[in-house]
């Protein structure tokens, strides 16, 4: 009998299709950023653990300098894929692909770096936070401190009010949209600056609930009908260059149920709360925004 977590994991990222992992290999922005960060973080002779290895590509990057890489993957199809690919790549023999649940696995020895890319926009759906927090507790109990370096090291999350077009050849459909970050979308109008609502430092305890309440000032008049969520992953901090190696997730835009006209200078009071690894609808259901100006105050629910 499956427990609640196992049932949820079947549709919240644990068993995403193999072709999705193949698409990630073709994401040049993601690949280049992780390769650069791993090249910086993994020193010659290091021991590395990857939680949720997928195709094994990040473990492959680590193996170019590391002496040993433990690559943990729960999906048996991806275990086969990773072993197949690593067998035909340089230094792939340094990677041990282990069929296990990342929630439970601990390496047989202390490691220097932990790579974990179970990342969805806003830390939704996938289990990045829960897996790393579980790992930290169990690792400290078995090996004591210090903790290894985590990759990513930190995450910055922000929310931004936008006007989003939902016309599809005359068919009106307010849907959740994912947009590439390096593309200009004529159907998206930014109404205010992004507001940072969470800063995650994986070397420190991370709360499993994200809650934010704040205000932003409208900079451009239009129709406020959606919230864009932005997730910037700080893969590695490079202090000697006063720089970071980052990876920006696709933007996620959630429709509001009742659009409202806004004018430049209006104040938007916004509040939401959700659980790390939770569903997108759970965030949508909690989203509340109030538009305030000199003339009118009206409540904007997340859904009609």
Overview of the structural elements:
This protein has 7 helices and 18 strands. The protein is of the alpha+beta class. The strands form 4 sheets. Strands 6, 9, 10, 11, 13, 14 and 15 form a 7-stranded antiparallel beta sheet that branches. A 5-stranded parallel beta sheet has the order 3-2-1-4-5, sandwiched between helices. Strand 7 (167-168) and strand 8 form a beta hairpin. Mean pLDDT is 91; it is low at 1-13 and 294-304. InterPro entries: Arg_MeTrfase, Methyltransf_25, SAM-dependent_MTases_sf. Residues 48-137 form the Methyltransferase domain. This is Methyltransferase domain-containing protein. Keywords: Methyltransferase, Transferase.
Chain-wise SSE layout:
Elements lengths: L3 H6 L8 H8 L2 H14 L5 E5 L5 H7 L4 E6 L2 H12 L7 E5 L13 E4 L11 H16 L5 E3 L2 E11 L2 E2 L2 E2 L4 E3 L8 E3 L4 E7 L7 E9 L4 E17 L4 E6 L2 E12 L4 E9 L4 H7 L1 E5 L4 E5 L3
Parallel strand pairs: 1-2, 1-4, 2-3, 4-5
Antiparallel strand pairs: 6-10, 6-11, 6-13, 7-8, 9-15, 12-16, 13-14, 13-15, 16-17, 17-18
Keywords, please?
Rossmann fold; Arg_MeTrfase; 304 residues; protein-arginine N-methyltransferase activity; Hnrnp arginine n-methyltransferase1; 7-stranded antiparallel beta sheet; 5-stranded parallel beta sheet; disordered N terminus; 18 strands; 2 domains; alpha+beta
Instruction: Give me the count of strands.
Output: 18
Number of domains: 2
What is the element string, with H for helices and E for strands?
Answer: HHHEHEHEEHEEEEEEEEEEEEHEE
Helical percent range?
10-25%
CATH architecture of the largest domain: Distorted Sandwich
The CATH class assignment of the largest domain is Mainly Beta
Runs in which pLDDT lies below 50 for 5 or more consecutive residues are 1-13, 294-304
Strand count, sense and barrel status of the largest sheet are:
7 strands, antiparallel
CATH superfamily of the largest domain: Hnrnp arginine n-methyltransferase1
> How does the helix and strand content classify structurally?
alpha+beta
Number of helices: 7
CATH topology term of the largest domain: Hnrnp arginine n-methyltransferase1
Radius of gyration: 21 Å
> What is the distance, rounded to the nearest whole angstrom, between the alpha carbons of the first and last residues?
38 Å
Please tell me the overall pLDDT: 91
